[in-house]
Design goal:
37 helices
């Protein structure tokens, strides 16, 4: 019977396209005496799934009687390829829409980074179904409107297990683990995906104990559950626990193997990383790139290049990793050769190379490369501004800052750091006051500007503002503050700042902070106190500490020269400082005073 023949042929066409054999599918389609909508739609979808979008469109245009499923298939093909414009055109031309049409375009907008368009379209839908409501709640969560996401979820006429699991994941991705667990506990039923999602939520947010407890209580453990737990321990640096989970896994996929590779990379255990990769049943590009990056970060460029040459295939990530490795190692010629050899480049690759020239203060090369870029991101502009800033080309940095199409926090901080390095407090403060938002880096740059300027009162004023606004501080911020206070002679404020590091901000003082305080005490003529601090250093002092202490002894007034010389001699004997050649130079300077 003809109907049976059509059904058989359609089944065979579906099998062909699923196997990637679109040519055989087309030959069978062309040889069919009778075709129905399923025949056309199956081949159109098959072409699209196999990346043959033009063939799919030609076939669609030949259809005389298109069903709503045909339109949806073609729109879905464009959506899958990320061709939003063509999908929109077809959507607007459709003679009739159903819920699948709406949901396809909504999902396309969401997946292509246009969640607001998705929400606008969702609000126009005449008959939303449970999938529509789920996508709407998910889209609200994507743009950070968790209140709207919750209201949409709570107002759904019915919910599926997919809807519940989506909300568990949405809360977790925003870091709201308590809400995520509340939704999970409220679920009328759970499947292995729900359990895996909650385990993953705990693991990715560093709550490994909760993740392990939930994993142990799960009725069924999927490979996703195992891998989520493994990834959590891997990311948190727990190599032993990660290895234990990996060894206990009843089955593994390439994601599991790669998670174990990352655990070894995180622990800088490259030998185990390499041997584990060799044991993998089928390593992918990610596996090889993990090993390549591990060698590169360890500074072993020779082994990194050997891994690159061993890789069966290269993608943008592996090429960019090699360019970045050479750049970080200061091998700019090799980085440029690798860059020029690349068959394709992404904006990330261009940014790496521009940034490398900038860090090497080769601003002309950075600018030439910048000008030759086919397209630029805000990161590219930031790299150029930083390049000018590091070379103290203030006017060029400012011109780039003014030309940039859009700015982010890094842009403002890069320009602020440029003024700071140049010691231009007035321009730095003017820019600082215009910033739409300030972070720790902004304040650190501003403090550094005052440190360079050596203005007597400015650091004290800025420290007052820092305390007033409750700005968080890191070790770099404290270093800038102490340097500024040291140069301006504010002993009391420097001592208070140094004392508050560990007690108020839980920042452990390092050698450079202690050196700065030794310098502060020396400038104030407190040589004995400087020696006490020098002697209390919990580690063997380096050249910088020695220079700071002996330098503070050397700048004392006449009345304190004798005690300063005694303190210096005692320190040299007590801490075996004679091994530093600079010791003799500084002592010589002191005795010639």
């Amino acid at each position: 019977m003809p109907e049976k023949n059509i059904v058989s042929c359609n089944t065979l066409i579906a099998a062909y396209v699923q196997d990637g054999r679109t040519r055989e599918a087309r030959e069978l389609f062309d040889g069919m005496r009778d075709r129905d909508a399923v025949s056309w739609n199956t081949l159109i979808t098959g072409y699209a799934r196999n990346g043959q979008l033009q063939e799919a469109r030609r076939l669609f245009d030949k259809m005389e009687d298109r069903s709503i499923a045909s339109w949806n298939a073609m729109i879905g093909a464009y959506a899958q390829e990320g061709d939003v414009e063509e999908a929109e055109k077809l959507f607007l031309r459709m003679p009739r829409l159903n819920v699948v049409s709406w949901n396809t375009v909504v999902t396309m907008y969401r997946q292509n980074g246009e969640p607001r368009k998705a929400l606008e379209l969702l609000k126009e839908m005449p008959e939303p179904n449970v999938m529509t409501w789920t996508v709407m709640a998910q889209t609200y969560a994507l743009v950070g409107h968790m209140k709207d996401a919750k209201e949409t979820f709570d107002g759904m006429p019915q919910r599926t297990i997919v809807s519940w699991t989506m909300m568990v994941k949405a809360y977790a991705e925003k870091g709201h683990l308590l809400e995520s667990k509340r939704v999970f506990d409220s679920m009328p039923e759970r499947n292995v995906v729900s359990w895996s999602t909650m385990i993953q939520a705990y693991a990715q947010n560093g709550h490994l104990k909760d993740a392990k407890n939930l994993f142990d209580s799960a009725p069924v453990k999927s490979i996703v559950s195992w891998t989520s737990l493994l990834q959590g321990y891997s990311q948190d640096g727990h190599l032993g626990e990660a290895k234990g989970i990996f060894d206990a896994m009843p089955e593994r996929n390439v994601v599991s193997w790669n998670a174990m590779l990352r655990a070894y990379a995180h622990a800088q255990n490259i030998e185990s990383l390499d041997s584990t990769l060799r044991k993998m049943p089928q390593a992918d590009l990610v596996s090889w790139t993990i090993l390549l990056t591990a060698y590169a970060q360890a500074g072993n460029l020779h082994e990194a290049k050997k891994v690159f040459d061993r890789m069966p295939l290269h993608d943008l990530v592996s090429w960019t990793s090699m360019v970045s490795a050479y750049s970080r190692g200061g091998h700019l010629e090799e980085a440029r050769v690798m860059f020029d050899t690349m068959p394709l480049r992404s904006v990330v690759t261009w940014n790496v190379m521009v940034g490398a020239y900038g860090e090497a203060r080769l601003v002309d090369e950075a600018r030439k490369l910048f000008d030759s870029m086919p397209y630029r991101s805000v990161v590219t502009w930031n790299a150029l501004i930083a390049a000018y800033g590091q070379s103290l080309c203030v006017d060029e940095a400012r011109a780039s800052f003014d030309w940039i199409p859009e700015r982010d926090g890094v842009t403002w901080n890069a320009m602020l750091a440029t003024y700071a390095h140049h010691g231009d407090v007035f321009q730095a403060w003017h820019l600082f006051s215009q910033m739409p938002a300030r972070d720790t880096l902004s304040w650190t740059a501003m403090v550094a500007a005052y440190a360079h300027s050596r203005h007597p009162q400015s650091p004290k004023t800025l420290l007052y503002i820092l305390n007033l606004e409750g700005v968080s501080r890191d070790e770099v911020t404290f270093m800038s503050i102490l340097t500024a206070l040291s140069h301006s002679g504010h002993l009391k404020e420097a001592c208070q700042c140094f004392g508050s590091m560990e007690f108020d901000y839980f920042v452990v003082s390092k050698e450079e902070h202690i050196c700065c305080m030794i310098d502060v005490l020396g400038r104030a003529g407190l040589v004995n106190e400087a020696k006490d601090l020098f002697d209390s250093m919990p580690y063997d002092p380096g050249k910088v500490a020695v220079a700071a202490f002996l330098g503070s002894c050397g700048r004392q007034p006449d009345v304190k020269v004798t005690s300063a010389r005694c303190a210096a001699n005692e320190a040299i004997l007590d801490r075996n400082l004679s091994r530093f050649s600079a010791t003799y130079v500084l002592l010589s300077n002191m005795y010639t005073l």
